[in-house]
Every structure is written in structure tokens, then in C-alpha cells.
Amino acid sequence: MEALLAGAALLADPMAIAALVGGVLLGVVIGVLPGLGPAVGVSLALPLTIGMDQVPAITLLLGIYAGSIYGGSVTAILINTPGTPSSAASCLDGYPMARKGRVGEALGIAALASVAGGILSLLILAFAAPTIAQWALNFGPAEMLALVLFSLTCIASVSAGNQLKGLLAALFGLFLAVVGQDVFSGEVRFDFGVFELAAGLSLVPLLVGLFALSEVFWRMGDPARSAGTGALPSGFAFPRLGMVRRLAPTILKSGVIGTLIGVLPGVGPTAASFVSYAEARRASKTPEDFGKGAPEGLAASEAANNAVTGGALVPTLALGVPGDPITAIMLGALVIQDIVPGPRLFTQHADLVAALLLGLLIINLLMLPIAKYFAFLWRRLLSLPDALLMAGVVILIGVGIFTLNNSVLDLVTALVAGLVGYALRRAGYPLAPIIIGFVLGKLLEQNLRMGLIVFQGDWTRFAASPIAAGFLALTLGFLLWPPARRLWRKRSTKGTD
């Protein structure tokens, strides 16, 4: 209790309050702009923290981190353009809800799920950070490979209309993941003589091109689709009590999944959101509604990707091991502020940890009023003529992507991805499996080859540990369950004839 009171006193400093509120507002704006995202926001704010005190500096970065991840859901819902990679799964059901005139409801569900997921991960961080961090240390190449293979099963959930086309799209994403220099041998692969491709393809231009630019091309080629998004939102609408009760199990489960995946270095919120989406669809009594505007799909994605923020802080604070690229930047901020992460941080500087946890709690709670009172901007956005709206999207995409790395190649990548995405959509191929394959492809290759080196080519050792064996068993179960269920139904039908 003394540490909690001392932390509250540190957080009561006007500078800390200003940094906290300003960080959330800035984060939401950065998240809404396609192509920027939390990594860019935290990087730009890092120099500003050099002359600040410890608590204001860290709360500023935490506000940008959490706010930008939520902000990415806004454009995902409104115009099928994920503001951040972690919001890609939110397009699958958020945008169909908007097309049906349920924009306010979709924004409310996204905000509520984001806050609930963030608070849940915060509670886990507060009570179990050292224990979970030690558990994460047990993940070697075999365990990570098994987790990646399990995560790839979510391709089936986002390819419900055509499993074969979904599989082909995922294979295309896996191919894109291996473009560039091999980290083990140094050999450049599939660069086609283009020197800039030696560094590989970037996720953000690929993601924005596939989803956002393909949407622009789709509307240009289909006048009926250019009629608008649907009924304009009357305002931000919090979900009713009945809807909250309906979504509560999905949010709780997705928050736990997002937190645990966030703990593991290198996996990140994009994978967490798709895995949670797949689990929500698997557990749903109406899985056929997913992809057509199911509130559970949107809630699962947003609860998971916001829970990653707290999960990624677990190894960062408890062990000094960043959980994702954003927390790697924040680890640098901790060092600048003479904060040494590790188990002793929770005992020797309990007041500082309490201040950061309380700050993260307030940051998550602040997102609700910000989401509500900024809704008038989204209404005005949707009231624009469709041609003007799409032109604005293209400009934002161009500025955001070029700002990311000052790279013309990123602009070309986004344009080509947009054209490919449009062609694939015309042919009936789902786009989400491409992103899943691309995100998980690098982890798959790295951990497979690293494991083969460590295990000296012995494949059996990939299933030797209990954690790896458990994930492999889950993967096998997920793959075998659908055909087994269909076979059981056929036999049951024959038995009744």
C-alpha cells in the first residue's frame, strides 16, 4: 500500500499528468494515420524525454504506445484501412459493421475491448510479471516454432469462404517473408536484381497497400461501392449491457491470449490479434457471421492487440528483455532515465513501478472519453464525398509510408501491393492470410533453422519439451477437428436414415 501511495504521489505531478494526457492524444492521432504506428510515434518522442523526469518521460511513451494501437482501429472500421499492422484483423468485421450503418456501435465495441484488454494485461503485469517473464525464458527455438505453427492455424478462420484460396494466399505471404538477405548465410534471395530488395520487404507498406490501396482501387472500379460507407454514425455508441455480456467471454479470453503472446519476444500484436480472432470464431456458435460484421470478431482483435502492450512490458521491466520493437525503444528510454530493468526493480523501486502501472491504468481509461468525444471527427470524415475521401486516404498513405523510412521503395511496394490486392480481391482470394504468412514467415524460418543447428539436425527434439509438444498437439487437434466433425456428422446422418 505504501508503494501504491508513493506511486500515486509521483503521478500527481502536473508534468506527469500533462505528459500522460498528451501522449494518449498524440498516440490516437498517430494510430489513425495509415503507415505511422506506435514504433514511429515512440521513436519521434524519445528525444523529448531526455530532459524530463522519470515518470513523465515513461508515461508519455506509454500513452503514445497504447493510444496508437487503439487509434489504428478507427480507420480500419471506417474505410477498411488499418492505421497500424495490429489493426488488420479489425478490418475483417469492423468494416462490414460500418457498411451496415453500425459505425458508432463498431467504434464503441473497439474502444471498450481495447480498454478492457489493456486493463487485463495491466493486472497480469502487476501481479505476475516476474513469474511470467521467467516462463517466457523457457521458449527456445523449438517452443517458438511450435507456437508459430499453432498461430498459422488461424489462416483457416480468416479463409472461411474458400480454404484452398486462403492457403494459397498464405503461401504467397510466406514467400514474401523470405525476400531479402538470409540472416544465417548472408545470401540474398529473390531480389530479382533490385538492390533495395536485399533488405527485404517492410510490413507496413505491404499491409497498407493490400488493405487500403486495394480498397481505393476497388471503389474506383465499382461505382455501386462508391456510394458511401452506409448510414452516418449518430455519434459514438457504447455497446448496450446485453452486448457487453455477450462480448465479455471473448474479451477476457482474447486479453489473456494477447498478454501471453506479448510476453514472447518478436511475436507482436499483429499475430496476437489474428490468433485471438481465430479462437473467437472457433468458439462461436455462429462462426458463419465472422467476416460479415460479427461484434465478437472486432472485440477479439482489439482486446488482444491492446493486451499486448502490458504483456510486452512484462519481460521489459522484469528482465530487461524487450517484448517487441516498441518496448525495445522504451528500454532505451529506461536506460536514459537511469532505470535498470530486472527483478530488483519491483522491490528496490516499488514506488516507480506503482507510478508506471497507475499511469498505464489511467491511459487505458482515458481512451474511452477520447474515443467518445472525437467521434464527431469521424462523422465529418464519413460525410465527405467518396472521391474526396479516397483521395485523402491516398495522400495520407503516401505521406505516412514515406515518413516511415524516407524510402521510395516503400511507396513502390505499397502501390504494387495495392494492385496485387485488388486483383486478388477480384479473384475471390482473402487478403488476411497474406499478412499472417508474412508476419509469421520470418519467425518460422528463423526458429526452424536455428533449431536444426542447435539440435544438430535431430527433428525429434522439436517435440521434446512439454511446451513445444503441447502446442504441436493443439495444432494437430485444430487441423484434424473439422474433418473429424464432418465425418462424424455424415455417420450420424447415415445412422438415422
Automatic annotation (TrEMBL):
Membrane-spanning intervals of the chain: 28-50, 57-79, 106-132, 144-161, 167-185, 192-213, 251-275, 352-375, 387-420, 427-444, 464-481
Coiled-coil residue windows: none
DUF112 domain sequence ranges: 18-436
InterPro entries membership: DUF112_TM
Pfam family, one: TctA
Keywords, in A-Z order: Membrane, Transmembrane, Transmembrane helix
PANTHER family in the cross-refs: TRICARBOXYLIC TRANSPORT PROTEIN (PTHR35342)
The protein, known as: Tricarboxylic transport membrane protein
Source organism of the structure: Rhodovulum iodosum
